[in-house]
Amino acid sequence: MNISHSDKQQLIVIGNGMVGHHLVEQLVERGATEAYRIIVFGEERHLAYDRVHLSEYFAGRDAESLALCASDYYAEHGIELRLSEAVTGIDRDNGEVVTDKGRYAYDRLVLATGSYPFVPPIPGNDRPNCLVYRTLEDLDAIRAAAEKATTGVVVGGGLLGLEAANALRGLNLDTAVVEFAPRLMPMQVDSEGGELLREKIESLGVQVLTERATQRIEDGGASFHRMVFQDDKVLETDLIVFSAGIRPRDELARECGLEMGERGGVVIDDHCLTSDPAILAVGEVALWNNSIFGLVGPGYQMAKAAAYTLTQGELTFRGADMSTKLKLLGVDVGSIGDAHGDRSPGARMFRYLDQIKQEYRKLVVSSDGKKLLGAMLVGDNSYYDTLMQYYSNGLELPEDPASLILPSTEGAPALGADALPETATICSCHNVTKGDVCASIDAGCTDLGAVKLETKASTGCGGCAALLKSVVDHELESRGVEVDKSICEHFAYTRQELYGIVRVEGIKTFSELIEKHGSSQTQGLGCDICKPAVASILASCFNEPITDASHIPLQDTNDTFMANMQKNGTYSVVPRVPGGEITPDKLIALGEVAKKYQLYTKITGGQRVDLFGAQLHDLPDIWQELIDAGFETGHAYGKATRTVKSCVGSTWCRYGVQDSVGMALHIENRYKGLRSPHKLKFAVSGCTRECAEAQSKDVGVIATENGWNLYVCGNGGMRPRHAELFATDLDDETLIKYIDRFLMFYIRTADRLQRTSVWRENLDGGLDYLKDVIIHDSLGIGEELESQMQEVVDRYECEWANALKDPAKLKRFRSYVNDDRPDPNIIVTEERGQLRPA
Amino acid sequence: MSTATVLKTETEADVSWQTLCIKSDLVAFSGVAAWIETAEGPAQVALFYLPGHETELYAVDHHDPFANANVIARGIVGDLKGQPVVASPIYKQHFRLKDGVCLEDESVQLRTWPVRFEGDQVMIAIEAL
Predict the structure, then answer these.
(1) pLDDT tens-digit readout, A55-85
(2) B67, A569: Cβ pair inside 8 Å?
(3) Quick one: which of A424, A492, A699, B37 has the fewest CB in 10 Å?
(4) Which is nearest to A235 in space by CA: A154, A162, A172, A168?
(5) pLDDT tens-place string over residues B62-95
(6) Which positions fall inside the Rieske-like [2Fe-2S] domain (chain B) (predicted)?
(7) Which A-chain residues 522-561 have CB contacts (< 8 A) with chain B?
């Protein structure tokens, strides 16, 4: 297949891993699709996915949620993505790439083939149930093998080996790690650090065997395999995962005669060009300055440099820092620069070891004690960010460098955000400097979320979240953007503080709150910011009818009239249809009401029916008919529980494993009427096919064979965000308990009009903190949150039913107090058999 | 002083006070809408009632010039920089109740009418037909 395009050159990218995908993103960003027709080949059947978080696949994340972009990203940018198509050769003479399906001409070619796991040449390494840990297919194979296994061994105690061990442990296997070197993670830690790491990992029930060279693998007695070591000691296990390092996948380059490194890898220059200037290489297949970079950060930097090279840009790749911080099996490990101190003649060291708390820290400093050359951390990575800044920016160390690693009894000399130079790298994944952050603030970003969106900082591995926050806070403050958190001129408090005051003092009306706690400079009327916010807080705490006389002036028009105002001043009406389940009789009743009042009818995304075009004075009559037909208000007008979307689940579906509709009904009936800082959407899917799209909701529930997986803080809308897996295989009761706590904690701590997704982005400590609070009850407020939720649930009453009982409340629904004539401004026209505003 | 007196007299001379509704039709710290007959034809006013405040009653256009919809009475009442205002329920612009001026765009102004209680009656001053 030779497609010739008159004006565009053909650019082929081989490999659709993390770096290959990043390259495409960079090319798109630089407008390269104007100059090139781009074809990307991926050998795997999956779109590029996040290998860094591969282990979460076992915790319930699927390929789609690990994907690095939306499935239509490539098509949207006119890029041809050919998955499941392995490239088998490169014909440089004819400028063609050969696959098993055809030949494709290239003008420029990029190798992003990555690496493969090295399997040591041990007799028996090809036995069944001897696997590797690299791709989703590998993980599927491990999962399948684990089903028949009770024990598992990982060969290799490095970073990936410990990741794999964690995965085996997660599959409930008795797990051991076998390492050739005298300690775990020999690249990152020294013997003290390694010893501590061993203790911590053994305390998790993972056996650690070091200085073991496997001689052969043969049939076991009690287990499937028997591993025989150099000293003839043996270890029996059912499953073996090799994770003994990586090797570049350079066979295509080798076969077509590109210059190779002695021990593999395609040689590239600073522009990522190989010995053939038409061909570039990036990522783990590329050898720069005799080094292969086995981390995603440097790979991204190469991808960026390659994109510049292909678009006549100036940026080059000049090597990358291999500093890293990780949490492996729950243990913090950090390594910065020359952590061992063996590459820096004359280096001096500081060490701190606490065997009780199991923490170890080491500094490698220059001979004059002024510069940090490297550092090593085991047990507590909170020191990492500051040390990294000293290291990467060459900052002069404090007089006593040891203070940087000593426990912070009298307050460690934290490196203030102001001490960092403009060139300091804040986010190494996306290469965002402090200067970039400042520029985004100058360009109008006024909070952390906006800066993240603008710069992408802290959206990769997230390791820099705390540092980014402190820089943003500091920069905002220094610009005199008085980070005034007052909700408005009437209250010198944040929404969270007002919530606390209302709770603690039991204040039940706006007038009492503004009298006791309002600013003195105002007329005490409040405004359209604080009034709805306080109304929402009062409703979240006490759940009194919002149409009560003391609450009605606080409400936005939608809440006041319990319907959604449309652009011509009419309203739309959305009755609750829990879980999207509705009887034919109720459907007919909806249709009859719509017909009688000439309402435009549309199905919503939340599995209910929206009736548009109701005039204010018709609302009570419409609702009387709906309530008579068995409906309740749907709160579509409120910052409140909206819908719980569901699929039919095990009741009907061949694939369903739980009764998703039943759970959706349970959830919707529990939380209906709950008011919160913003609207709340839920969904329940009956199996992992996820037809209810639960991962785009504030609270998503997906059935598993053992119960329910809970996802939180997802969002559709303008800024979509995948929900994150929060807990797995929950029973009904625990599921509800967690949702109770989660929602009430959100209501307690979120800003006004802050959706759960943004709240989560801004939450110090992130998902781990949220899990600590909700699951492990680290703040000791679990029961309190539950009982507060129960109070709201117990006080639920349909607001429309309440209003219809009260003639005084109904008076409010007159369009005009002195005349019955309709609003002549509301003019409608017919379109597709329905009425719409003219 | 004398000028003011003259003006007031002129104003009084050109207007007629009409009964709009009764006090219990109003909603405290919020608004209701009503029809009036003016020299230019029928018009819709938004009436706001702030019991206990220096000025308790305000009447402004019910028509929102930004949204071109009759909705002002359904906005939230508040005070900004010491001045009572109403926020449009559609696009949230603020209008001063005293003179109808839009705080976000001072070239836009709602009409205003004098209003007062006479006993239980809500009275509005309308230019003589």
Answers:
(1) 788 877 888 888 888 888 999 899 999 999 9
(2) yes
(3) B37
(4) A154
(5) 999 999 999 999 999 999 988 999 999 998 899 9
(6) 16-124
(7) 522-528, 530-532, 549, 552-557, 560-561
A664-710 per-position pLDDT tens digit: 999 999 999 999 999 999 999 999 999 999 999 999 999 999 999 99
A532 vs B contacts (CB less than 8 Å) = 76
Residue A441, pLDDT above cutoff 50: yes
Give the pLDDT confidence of A13-30 residue by residue, as tens digits: 999 999 999 999 999 989
Task: Determine whether the interchain pair B50/A531 forms a contact, defined as Cβ–Cβ distance below 8 Å.
Answer: no
Under an 8 A CB cutoff, do A565 and B85 touch? no
List, in order, residues 6 or more apart from A203 with CB less than 8 Å away.
none
Question: pLDDT tens across A617-650, in order?
Answer: 999 999 999 999 999 999 999 999 999 999 999 9
Give how far B45 is from chain A: nearest CA, Å: 9
HSE value, Cβ hemisphere, 13 Å, CA-based, for B22: 4
Interface test with A, best of B74, B98, B115 (most A CBs within 10 A): B74
Residue of A nearest to B69 (CA): A568
Question: Taking CB atoms and an 8 Å limit, are B84 and A818 in contact across chains?
Answer: no
Beta strands in A577-696 (DSSP E): 600-603, 609-614, 641-646, 680-685
A321-415 — its CATH code? 3.30.390.30
* A524 contact residues in B (CB cutoff 8 A): 79
Q: A521 at the B interface (CB within 8 A)?
A: yes
* More confident site: A751 or A614: A614
Which tokens hold the place of A377? 């951390």
Query: Residue A482: its pLDDT value, please?
Result: 60
CB-based burial, A597-635: b 16+ in 10 Å, e otherwise: bebbeeebebbbbbbbbbbbebbbebbebbbebebbbbb
What is the model's pLDDT at position A453? 77
| The CATH number of domain A9-116+248-310, selected from 3.40.50.1110, 3.40.50.1240, 3.40.50.20, 3.50.50.60 | 3.50.50.60
* Closest Cβ opposite residue A557 in set B35, B50, B74: B74
Locate tokens 């005051």: which residue?
A501
A820 has a chain B CB within 8 A of its CB: no
Around Cβ A508, how many Cβ atoms within 10 Å? 14
Pairwise CB contact (< 8 Å): A817 & B50: no
Residue type at A196?
L
> In this complex, is the C-beta atom of A822 within 8 Å of any C-beta atom belonging to chain B?
no
Q: For chain A, which residues make up each domain, given as ranges?
A: 9-116+248-310, 130-244, 321-415, 495-555, 641-805
CATH superfamily, with its number, for domain A130-244: FAD/NAD(P)-binding domain (3.50.50.60)
Task: Decide whether A130-244 matches A321-415 in CATH topology.
Answer: no
* A102 φψ region: left (φ > 0), alpha (ψ -120 to 50), beta (else): left
Report pLDDT digits (tens) over A326-359.
877 778 899 999 998 888 888 899 999 988 888 9
- How far CA A279 is from CA of A293, A348, A354, in Å, comes to 19, 44, 52
Instruction: State residue A391 phi and psi, 5-degree precision.
Output: -70, -55
> Do A568 and B69 count as a contact with CB atoms less than 8 A apart?
yes
- Which residues on B lie below 8 Å from A823 (Cβ)? 44, 70
How many angstroms separate the CA of residue B1 from the nearest CA in chain A?
29
As a CATH number, domain A641-805 is: 3.30.413.10
Identify the pLDDT of residue B2: 36
Q: How far is CA A353 from the centre of its chain?
A: 34
Whether chain B has a CB inside 8 Å of the CB on A564: the answer is: no
Residue A415 pLDDT: 62
